[in-house]
Amino acid sequence: MISSLHRPTLAKVNLSAISSNIKQVQGRIPQAVKTFAVVKANAYGHGAVAVASHVQRLVDGFCVSNIDEGVELRQAGIRKPILILGVVLPDEIALARDYRLTLTVASLEWLEAAQQKQLDLEGILIHVAVDSGMGRIGVRSLAEANDLISGLLKAGGQVRGIFTHFATADEADDHKFQEQLAFFKELVAGLDYCPEIVHASNSATSLWHREGIFTAVRLGLVIYGLNPSGCELTLPYTIKPALTLESALVHVKKVPVGTDIGYGATYTSSEEEWIGTLPLGYADGWTRDMQGFDVLIDGQRCPIVGRVSMDQITVKLPQSYPLGTKVTLIGSSGDQTILATDVAQKRGTINYEVLCLLSDRVPREYD
Fold it and tell me: What would be the CATH architecture of the domain defined by 243-338?
């Protein structure tokens, strides 16, 4: 999808806020702990190459979701270690070697498949995944972990790390978290060979569960300045949201009472009203369920009226404004602020999804 550079809708990304957020976390964890910045999904919508390029001197490495995301960073000149958190099928081993990418291996079946195909694991960088209760990927017992690590080492693989992922680290009830942590600690303690890098801490664990920090942390949403728990847990210190989403009025009109607005005629004016049109819609990630939510214009909250369409939304204005008037969808105007977390609450989802849904059609501007 091509970026729409010639319309006034754009996402502004404050790279200094991201580096500041990283330093905030690093100042509160043991100095020897390695920091991996999670830049998967285009750095949660912020732009993977731009973010990684800006922070690479602050961190020890990066985490991505798949091999193509890792290749993109290498081709952009990123030289720090890059861990692929998802499972890459054995057929891509050669590509991982070519781009010096670290693979996650999650099962004995993966190793057996590689060996059946006579694929060369010599020198391949590997982290082993442990399923401590998340239920997605990873070995599920000490015996399986020992067998897998032993087999990988015999095949020439360089097993540099072992990790797990917590399902409920961002929730007030830590019962399941403590179960997972105990399982992982016991497994690591029983390994015949323990890799140097042991990591279980995502953003939530790094913020609220110091006991879950091992020799490295994986920092995702926290570096982009948002609360991983939404509103359930209070942040222990201040972080700065890095992304604002802005547009502008491209059409303004006064409509008489009884005027229908948008697809399905889901809004009808109850009096004479000023209606403004903005050039963005669900193709940009501003989903149809945002009808009834607000945008910010001149420090005032203005409701979205009528259905969000693919390319346009309409808002009720308190007065007439000139074309080109700035509209804030995520960010601040005057003393009013809309966070991605507020958008998520309207949608019944999480702030991660709000950011990741911002499409490539929305240009990113960096400062």
Answer: Beta Barrel (2.40)
